[in-house]
Design a protein that fits this description.
- This protein is an alpha/beta fold.
- It has one domain (about 10-240): Metallo-dependent phosphatases (Purple Acid Phosphatase, chain A, domain 2).
- It has helices at about 20-30, 45-50, 55-75, 85-90, 135-145, 180-190, and strands at about 10, 35-40, 75-80, 105-110, 115-120, 120-125, 130-135, 155, 165-170, 175, 195, 205, 210-215, 225, 230-235, 240-245.
- The strands form four sheets. Strands 3-2-1-14-15-16 form a six-stranded mixed sheet, with helices on one face.
- The N and C termini lie close together (about 5 Å).
- About 40% of the residues are buried.
Length: about 250
């Protein structure tokens, strides 16, 4: 199982800033990827909350312009995280007319690769605009499994619990920040590759032939390159490891 006819694709997460967008444009010029996959958190809503209405609008206009600069150079497919302008992500389309938004449990054929998105964060009630209720997620997952649809790559913002989701607190203690339902999804959906964001420290691990990658903060120059059968993991802009996942 390979990456279809893909020669090269970029994967980013937690861009969070105009600086991150501009760095991505530089990487697109450098790598010339066939497409970019995004794991959410393109924006920085919390940082904008204290701004005046006028400054906030100017920031949004600049972010939209930067999105358009990206999709003028290559195709973009992304989920949203918990710091995003949802309407913008749901509205924008690539030059070929395809939506940039990867909907929950919708499998897209992207250059011969079967890709599925999982958006936002899973919570008990799902009351926040970036949140998905546990009951709703489980219902959608059961419906998807009944369809018999196969998926090769999952792109999410939230992490599967116990899989590349470790956070070290100020006391040096390690805890797992992912969600159990995503661990269940990893088990039953059986994708070869799961890419996620949210946790800014880059990490990855293999489990029974599956690779789970926390792409890491793009503001720290962390990203992933999919190239042929290889998954190349870059940390601080330097190749950290090349994993031959697809055979």
């Amino acid at each position: 199982m390979g990456l279809g006819r893909v020669m090269r694709a970029l994967v980013v997460a937690d861009v969070h800033d105009v600086k991150g967008f501009r760095r991505l444009v530089e990487l697109i010029e450098e790598y010339k990827p066939e497409f970019v996959l995004g794991c959410g958190d393109w924006g920085s809503r919390k940082r904008m909350e204290g701004y005046s209405y006028e400054i906030y609008n100017l920031a949004l206009e600049e972010i939209e312009d930067l999105f358009r600069e990206i999709i003028s150079r290559t195709r973009l497919y992304t989920v949203y995280g918990n710091h995003d302008e949802l309407e913008l992500i749901k509205y924008l389309k690539n030059v070929d007319g395809s939506p940039i938004w990867l909907r929950d449990f919708e499998v897209r054929d992207i250059a011969g690769m079967r890709v599925m998105g999982l958006n936002g964060l899973i919570t008990l009630t799902g009351r926040g605009i970036y949140h998905v209720a546990e009951s709703e997620f489980r219902r959608k997952m059961v419906e998807f499994l009944k369809s018999g649809t196969k998926v090769e790559v999952v792109v999410s913002h939230d992490a599967p619990k116990y899989f590349s989701d470790k956070i070290v607190n100020k006391n040096g203690n390690i805890y797992h920040a992912g969600h159990e339902l995503l661990s269940e999804a990893l088990t039953v959906l059986r994708p070869r590759l799961w890419l996620h964001g949210h946790i800014h420290s880059q990490q990855y691990e293999r489990s029974f032939g599956q690779l789970v990658v926390c792409v890491g903060s793009f503001l720290r120059d962390n990203y992933v390159v999919l190239s042929g059968e290889d998954v190349e993991i870059y940390q601080n802009g330097v190749l950290r490891e090349r994993i031959k996942l697809f055979r």
